[in-house]
Amino acid sequence: MYFKESNGFPETFLWGSASAAYQIEGAASEDGKGVSNWDQFVRIPGKTFKATTGDLAVDHYHRFKEDIALMAEAGLKTYRFSIAWTRIIPDGNGEVNEKGLAFYDAIIDECIKYGIEPMVTVYHWDMPQALQDQYGGWENRQIVKDYVRYATTLFEHFGDRVHYWITMNEQNVFTSLGWLTGMHPPGKVMDQKMFYQVNHHANMAHAYSVLELKKRYPDAHVGASFAYTPGYAWDCKPINAMAKADYDDLQNYFWMDVYAYGRYPKAAIRYLESNGIHIQMEAEDQKIMKQAAALIDFMGVNYYQTAAIEYNPIDGVGMSTEVNTTGKKGTAKEEGIPGLYKKPSNPYLEKTDWDWTIDPMGIRMCCRDITSRYDLPIVISENGLGAFDKLEEDNVIHDPYRIAFLEAHLKELKKAIDDGCDVWAYCTWSFTDLLSWLNGYQKRYGFVYVDREEDDTTAKLNRYKKDSFYWYQNVIKTNGKDL
Ligand code: BGP
Which residue positions are annotated as catalytic (predicted)? Predict the structure, then answer.
């Protein structure tokens, strides 16, 4: 829709940036931290670009004061970060580690000192390896109890100062990559039954923790962050429009409907059952899912790209177990689900060097769809551009491509707000450069350059502000008025 005048961003808008513990902290075995599934998985040859690990990452563990001071200089209103379960309960379900709590106390207090609202992700993929070894981690229903105990420990300890909580980061991604494509731990390939079961356990872990949080802090704001890739029907052939409906039910609403309505989409469940996949539920599950759905305050959206959706014949392409992790454009492969849909390359959109489509309008599509379907407030919990950056003489970094990317997305987000979407926050991915799970350190996202490459031994770890730092600083200062 078109509006003659824009109301712009609300005065209370939370301009922010996001990170995740494994990607930023380092200090992998300090102060009692336990081993996570990622600490272990990255050691399997061939899993990550140039065998990178988060052992050192960008050493945020020791440099968080410097990093948060830079956030304050940029004017951030919120900082979204995740807590490493292995720092709080090193073996997943045993003793609580006071030093772990103290580390996040210090981060939270540092944020508050500068008037930055801490936004905490309970789980951003790094599960204690001990739980994998004890009972198979997410594959066992026991994880729900252990997760809820861990989450409740956080709510009780930090809930007096943290008003925004994200239970799960991209549940759709860690389950799909963990049990379908094998690219994330535990590295299982096309174990469809387990994938849906694991996902259900994650739904219950989310739901029970929402209830525990609201018992203690009824005014806390809580949601989950969904990796939302809106789909466009390839053309106006009805079969492609139906493929898009299938895609939405199985790839998007399969998660968002659970968070917002407490139920799975009917057509998706019918499809799974007709393929012999029956999600095992306990008697109370549906009731608990609904109770949690009634209590969530926002839909968290990690938005990076859109997909074109075309009908895929029964003998068509399957899921790809390879992705472009090198930054050599054009190396990603088409993928899909035979008999339902596939995702051909969209000829109308540019792509990043890692073959992610660049589609600013997609962020508005996300907001519009969530508003129409769920009428929930929205937190954009991630959005950003992974790119090669160059540190030049005098330690300057010119990244006009990142500024153009973010600016175009913010213009569309502003339109979404004019459309009536209740958007509370926008977090860029990321603030400093950090480790990209599978793509090493060369795929950079930050406003602040971190002087390191793949090899830990040559890492200098100095922080340098990129041009985009100053650009974002001005956007925040003017509350997006100049966009
Ligand atoms: C999201 C994750 C983030 C981050 C981001 C960029 O899926 O929540 O943790 O990594 O994507 O992805 P990548 O590092 O693969 O480029």
Answer: 382 (nucleophile)
